[in-house]
Amino acid sequence: MIIAIDGPAGSGKSTISKLIAENLGITYLDTGAMYRLFTLKLLKEKVLLTDKDKINKFLENLDIDITNDRFYLDGENVSEEIRKTDISENVSKVAAIKEVREKMVDLQRKFSKSQDVIMDGRDIGTVVFPNADIKIFLVADLKERAERRYKEIIEKGQKVSFDEIYENIVNRDNLDSTREITPLRKAEDAIEIDTTGKSIEKVKNEILEICRNRNKL
Ligand code: DC
Questions:
Q1: Mean pLDDT, the chain, as a whole number?
Q2: How confident is the model at residue 158 (pLDDT cuts 50, 70, 90)?
Q3: Are 91 and 99 in contact, with CB atoms under 8 Å apart?
Q4: So what's the pLDDT on residue 68?
Q5: Cα(31) to centroid of ligand 1, in Å?
Q6: How far apart are CA 105 and CA 210, in angstroms?
Q7: Does position 162 have pLDDT exceeding 80, yes or no?
Q8: Rounded to 5 degrees, what are φ and ψ at 48?
Q9: What is the rounded distance in angstroms from the CA atom of residue 162 to the CA atom of residue 146?
Q10: Which residues have CB under 6 Å of ligand 1?
């Protein structure tokens, strides 16, 4: 079984996907984290985003690993680093590079070969798994999405201003949905859920109900 959850930043994808994975006993893959890990690699190595040769070389030797809630780059746990502002500010530009997307999509498809999965991202229902059993597209008001992200980051002890977060979300929405290659969009057969003002529990139950109605459980 493959469940695809797409939507813009802060729409609730990862929180909801984790809960659904637990509830159904399936594996969750945060595909945004994969793009974040590679962005961290490029920033660490000071690679210019125009330097295709170097980018291809690093893609060939990519060493990322995701275990439960921990994210590893070259064997090092970088779970906190990949959520920081410099990564959020650069990740959409990295995710717009054709070669990067090809590599990540390939890894995501391989990941699902041997197991039932729920994956969240921007192109899961449209590109990675156009035949996913269930496709959900989560949306929410921009202000609420920024507030959720702000709260999340502050709780982790990082210092940011609300305006900084708001601006980052506006920029990423714009870059993610206007990029040339596989931009963020709702698959025609995806079910859209607006999570504005809804509790996590309510959205989770709505999705579980959709799963039940499709006789997939
Ligand atoms: O889900 P996130 O905010 O951690 O994702 C970080 C960025 O990665 C996002 O701004 C766009 C990109 N991304 C993508 O292009 N395709 C995906 N399947 C997942 C994320």
A1: 95
A2: confident
A3: no
A4: 80
A5: 7
A6: 26
A7: yes
A8: -75, 140
A9: 7
A10: 9, 31-32, 35-36, 91-92, 95, 121-124, 172, 176
What is the C-alpha separation between 117 and 139, in angstroms, rounded? Answer: 21
- Domains with residue ranges and CATH for the chain: 2-194 (3.40.50.300)
Which atom of ligand 1 is nearest the CA belonging to 182? Answer: 15
Q: Looking at the whole model, is its pTM more than 0.85?
A: yes
**Could you tell me the distance, in angstroms and rounded to a whole number, from the CA of residue 186 to the centre of ligand 1?**
14
CA-to-CA separations, 65 to 75, 80, 155, in angstroms, rounded: 8, 14, 25
- Walk across the sheet containing 117-121 and list its strands: 27-30, 117-121, 2-6, 134-139, 191-194
Per-residue confidence band for 133, with pLDDT thresholds at 50, 70 and 90: very high
Distance 213 CA to ligand 1 centre (A): 29
Residues β-bridged to residue 6: 121, 137
- Single-letter amino acid, residue 113: K
H helical segments located in the chain? 13-24, 31-44, 52-60, 85-95, 98-112, 142-155, 162-178, 200-213
**pLDDT tens digits, residue range 35-77?**
999 999 999 999 999 999 999 999 999 999 999 889 999 999 9
